[in-house]
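Long-time lurker. I teach an intro course on protein structure, and each term I like to show students one example going from raw sequence to a predicted 3D structure in token notation. This year I'd like something fresh instead of my usual example. Would anyone be willing to generate the tokens for the chain below so I can use it in lecture? Attribution to the forum is fine with me.
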Amino acid sequence: MKVGIVLQQIKASVKMKKLTSTLAVALFFASIQSYAQIQVSGKIEDSQGKLPQAKVLTYDKKNFVLTDNQGNFSITIPEGSASVIVTYEGYTDKTVDIDTSANPKVADLGIIVLENKENTKSIEGVVITSAYKPSQARALNIKKNSETISDVLASDVIGKLPDRNAAEAIQRLPAVTIERDMGEGRFAAVRGTPIQWSSSTLNGNRMPSASGDYANRGLQMDIFPSELIQFVKLSKTLTPDMDGDAIGGTIDFITKTAVSKETLSVNAAGGFVNQSKSPSYNASVVYGNKITDKLRFITSAVIWNRDTGIDNFQMVYDFNNKDKVKSFAINQLQLRDYIAQRRTLGFNGALDYQINKNNKLYFKGLYSQYIDGQNVRETYFNFNTKNVQLQARHSDYVTDLYSFDLGGEHKLSDKLKLDWSLVKARSSFEFNSPKNLSKDERGYPIVLFRQNMTYGNLSADGLKYLAMDSPDGTGDASDVVLPHNLSALDPAQIYLYQTIISRNKNSERDYRGQFNFSYRLNDKINLKAGGKLVDKDKNFASSVYVWMPSKLMGIPGSAPLVYLNQLQTEGFAYNGGFLNPLGQPYNNVIIDQITNGQIDQMYTPEFIANNTMFNVQGPNTASNLAASYSGKENVYSAYVMGNFRLTEKLTVIGGFRNEYNVTNFKGNSVVIKGNTTVAEPVEKENTYNAFLPMVNMKYNLDENTIFRASYTRSFARPDFSDLNPGLQINDALQTITQGNAGLKPTYANSFDLMFEKYFSNLGIISVGSFYKSLSSIIYQDQTTEQRNGLVYLKSSPGNLEKGWLFGLEANFSKRFTELPGFLQHFGFEGNYTFVDSKTEIPVYNGAAVEKIETTLPKQAKHIFNASIFYETDKLMIRLAGNYKGKYLNAIRSLAGPDHYQWFDKNFTLDATASYAISKKIRLFAELNNLFNEPNRFYHGKQDRTENVSYTGFRGQMGVSLNF
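-- Reply from a regular --
Happy to contribute to a lecture. Here you go:
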């Protein structure tokens, strides 16, 4: 037995020696190439700035390198070569002579400018005249020369589309959809995957996230103005030097960087929001210059102020009822009117210090503040409890985000480079009302009124149905459900039921340190290795305080009840009506509501004392103790990879990444002991390791035709809120969230194919497919629960065993320059993505009885973007449409598939136009959501409405100045 083991060890040793010898020989011959060569460096720009991913070739065109994001390059050429060739899509090839008189081994070509003047044509005769074409050229060059499957959006493209924040900007990219809040983009999803499966990064790093309504890892992009962005790169496949928690892909926002010459641009615009019948304005300024030849900077600032709103109605079905017919009964009809005063502020700064030719230090800083002042009035018709509830609430949602990034780039030798960075980033959120309370006492004030009510148009069993679900056909149409209350809402009978204040302060802080070594063995082999440490702190402090009139509790000596007609009220509905697109069907059942000032006064000590308001839920109740938690997450990452140009046409990037994760979670769990409910401390530590091999292959069939293939393994971490073992209760939205401390990350093995054909006139056609094999899929299960006489929607996360996702995508962009006359100024850009998926959901009836096959939650099967534009050297007009197909939004395993919630298909149409008065002055106009497309959710089947929201259209006009 021992002899066999020894023989095996000898054989293994011999094999290792052979492998080592082979590798040494290969490295020796590769190193020979370093002799008798010239190291050539420089920077590529055009009249508008740096040109990333420009191709710099040796004169015989056998070897090439690409410029980095700053336009810099370094290439080794054979001794005796007299020049290099620079190419860029849409620009004329440029041959640059090399002067080696000062040093025969090193040549610095300085700044090489590719002209884009009106009288300069590319090799195919395309005139680069407009402001959009150079931007399109940048985007196509980065995409074409990328080693992965990716898409790019440049800053001036973002400025010419009617997109006011980062999410709305990137929805134009292939396979990207966004989630909206009050009509404004908030989160982005890639290739039909859930939001949490896509990584949104700033300069290559995930940003911390804190908010009031969401506690996931997705970046709230509505707090991030589009004016701060230099360009966006969407990587649909990963390389080992990228964070691995990105199953859908990575959306990297590159902020503006320091400039080499004085730059000043100013934008100002004013507009109108139809839903709130109010004006809006925004302004931005960007200024940069070089202080010395070594020290350069850029700064930018933006403000966007607007009122927006939603008209919403929704039904709560009794889907937990075990009686199949009664499970479609409507327990509650909700009418919600939102008005929000929103302000977005953003500041960005960057500083570069070129120590010498081989060493550079940089600093990048960003700050953004988003204030969402919500003013909400709601009427709930409770058919199951035979009453009407009025709910009035308002608060400032305040979100702050900052990031500081200090880093360096060092050329240690002709072959070895090092870059590093240290980052601190923090995001925080708080409710900040009412202002008459101290800072620590503020939150989200919610005032509830009630009136007993009887209802008509009920089924024979006394329940409320849609006519399609009613056992005797008595009920309402699905598009408009009316309450049919048999008596009017009367302010003299509507009494104060509860006052609530929901306090929520949460923050997330990141420290990051990373380094990357790059070793260029030769112009065909580049090796890279690095490491990264992320230290994350998450703190979530939440509590709900509730007061009730002592009179309702039967306490002797209580003050009389307070009625609505005794309080200060104002006209309602706000700003021109409620649900106008449906013909204002609820005008006869809505009444005037109390003012925000009146709401604030109801939390003063005087009001509480004079009306004997009794505190029924305070700081030490079990539900409040269980709602707060803290978490600490450390991620230790390392990677090794190589970029191998195996032939003139074939390039392979391969390697692996390893991420070791340690999460420590502290919270409280609600425990029932006899007749008492208490909160007990819970501490949970989870560790897991993610080993992520990745391979990307790129094959150039010819200069303008590329075939790509890749295999990548990636994962998605659980959200912090999903790990909290306690209960989080949101009385404003009537939701309950129960966490799961044992939740596992989701893993994916992804396979991608892509074919790309580039046109000579800045166009492309591409088709591709992707397949993802999934395991431990995180999903949210929903049930309902009675609380204080109201129906709350309860969500809790779990893991599904496995599933798969398959997709096809196509992209087409073309300028019709071959057409005669004015037709040559037309162009078209469009992309379509088809996605299908399958997983198995457990269906319970007290115990697990079966598994139902269904699609993945939040995965739209059909997605497309299309735009038609007309562009001359001065005028640009663009019409852009975005379509997102229906998708499964919420799983309700106890109720079964007939009660799943689905998001209905959605199509929005936007328009923009601009006119250049001169090279420095441009006028523009923008319109969003021209047809007032609603967001609609349905219950089980498409004709059973559950939730509908209208946000209206908005528009603006302005001027852009560039100096």
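Some talking points for your students: The first helix runs from residue 2 to 32. Confidence is low (pLDDT under 50) at residues 1-35, 117-129.
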